[in-house]
Specification:
- By secondary structure, the chain is mostly beta strands.
- The protein is 8% helix and 47% strand.
- The chain is built from one helix and eight strands.
- The chain has an eight-stranded antiparallel beta barrel with strand order 1-2-3-4-5-6-7-8.
- A hairpin with an 8-residue loop joins strand 4 and strand 5.
- The longest helix has 12 residues.
- The protein is globular.
- The two termini are 26 Å apart.
Length: 153
């Protein structure tokens, strides 16, 4: 009984509750591409983590694309994705072409709903990203259908 009382006292003394990050997962489909290795209709498993303290997230936004051939993460430091937003890209491909901190640009960005809250169940995004996979002559357009990943207890 003393152990139970001690455990309860320790839990009560913890500063706040740790909140899991809010993420949405789904599929991305390439709708436009001038890249030699990425075709219209290619698809990626995608994970989207928008910035926002109210969501339990930091001030940075992340968007990851995963396929059987490669993985890529696009990071917007200190804010949300938006048209003309500078981003950093990092990832790895099946041809051992790892890269990190490559500069890129989000040239188009539309998200529905425009405002995302912790109770938003699904998100639809259309975007165009220049320098995709760190290649200066590679620009692709994507559309994404994403659903909220349930928070862990």
């Amino acid at each position: 009984m003393k152990r139970l009382a001690l455990a309860a006292a320790l839990c009560a003394a913890l500063p706040g509750v740790v909140q899991a990050e809010a993420i949405w997962v789904g599929e991305s489909f390439v709708t436009g591409s001038n890249c030699s290795t990425i075709g219209i209709g290619d698809n990626y498993r995608s994970v989207y983590r928008p910035a926002g303290g109210a969501l339990g997230n930091s001030a940075d936004s992340f968007l990851s694309f995963l396929s059987g051939r490669a993985g890529l993460t696009v990071e917007r430091t200190g804010g949300q994705f938006a048209p003309a937003a500078a981003v950093l890209l990092f990832g790895s491909g099946s041809r051992a072409n790892d890269f990190a901190n490559e500069a890129g640009t989000v040239t188009a960005w539309t998200r529905s709903p425009a405002t995302v809250t912790a109770t938003t169940r699904s998100i639809y995004i259309e975007t165009t990203i220049a320098n995709f996979f760190g290649a200066s002559a590679c620009t692709i357009s994507l559309r994404m259908n994403l659903v909220r990943e349930p928070a862990l207890p």
